[in-house]
Design goal:
By secondary structure, the protein is mainly α. The chain folds into two domains: 60 residues, no CATH class; 60 residues, no CATH class. The chain has five helices and two strands; from the N terminus they run E-E-H-H-H-H-H. Strands 1-2 form a two-stranded antiparallel ribbon. InterPro entries: Integrase_DNA-bd_sf, Integrase_DNA_bind_dom, Integrase_recombinase_N, Phage_int_M, Phage_Integrase.
């Protein structure tokens, strides 16, 4: 395959505070119908005085921020703040329990999609399945 292979993109030229271009994806990954739908959505944004390129970047940044804040990230931040004055042996036990029991189950989930009642319900079921403990 050539180093200089051509890339075919669905693009739309528009004017919003100057000349700009917006890409809707690679051909054939994005169909003509999907590209036209995305173009029509972008036209509506321009009609509403919103820059489609800036809007696309803002949506992408919000999605990345939501995904970047995983349960593991928040739990490690909590651990760093709350365990500063604890003994090393206690810190080691707590982080080992969190890593072994919780991160394997919840670690990569975005914090924004976790609800307390679902986590509690699922945790009880997960712990009972993992151990031979009786609930009562």
């Amino acid at each position: 395959m050539s180093k200089f292979a051509l890339t075919k993109l669905w693009r739309w030229k528009y004017c919003f505070d100057g000349k700009k271009r917006l890409s809707f994806g690679r051909y054939p990954d994005v169909s003509l119908k999907d590209a036209r739908t995305k173009r029509d959505d972008a036209r509506k944004l321009v009609a509403d005085d919103v820059d489609p390129s800036a809007h696309k970047k803002a949506v992408k940044a919000a999605m990345l921020e939501r995904v970047a804040n995983t349960f593991e990230d928040v739990a490690r931040e909590w651990f760093a703040r709350m365990m500063t004055d604890k003994a090393k042996s206690h810190k080691d036990k707590v982080i080992a329990r969190i890593e072994n029991d919780i991160f394997a189950w919840l670690g990569k989930r975005p914090i924004s999609v976790l609800a307390a009642y679902r986590v509690a319900r699922d945790a009880v079921g997960w712990l009972l399945a993992r151990t031979s403990a009786k609930p009562w």
